Amino acid sequence: MEWMYKRFDELTALELYQIIKARIDVFVVEQDCPYPELDNHDQAAVHLYLHHDKDIVAYARLLPPGSTYCQASIGRVLVHSNYRGGGYGKELLIRSIDYIINEWQEKEIKIQGQEYLRRFYGSFGFEEISDVYLEDGIPHVDMLLKK
Asked: In this protein, which residues make up the domain named N-acetyltransferase (predicted)?
């Protein structure tokens, strides 16, 4: 298994297909939530993922400031259902935060997290900055990390 950091134009067609498939499998199929998965933000992102054979084990989309928020952001965070419970989510968040702080020299990271993951994100220092609200029928909360 290998962690990869790639800009959109560095992804091969196969890698992009595997990433989109993983995102659709988790967010659309598993969570039974039809929403516009392709939102024109992938082109500005750094795609961080752990790859094993044909599977995307873990994935996050890192967006620079000004893409979706004033701050840098982490989104589309997932761990494939076959690999949950192995610590990949924690490592994914550590790597995501580290990249944004050290590579982009950013001091704030904003996320739109699913409500049931508030404690998970909070364990990395993210603080809630909104009330819980529905996004595509799923409870979410905005959170901010300041370094």
From this structure: 6-147
Average pLDDT over residues 89-111: 98
Q: How far apart are CA 75 and CA 66, in angstroms?
A: 14
Cα gap 133→46, rounded to integer Å: 27
The answer regarding whether domain 2-146 maps to CATH 3.40.50.2000 reads no
Distance of CA 132 to the CA centre of its chain: 19
Say yes or no to pLDDT of 54 above 90: no
The confidence score (pLDDT) of residue 23 equals 95
* Residues facing 133 on adjacent strands: 140
Helix ranges (H only) for the chain are 13-23, 88-102, 118-122
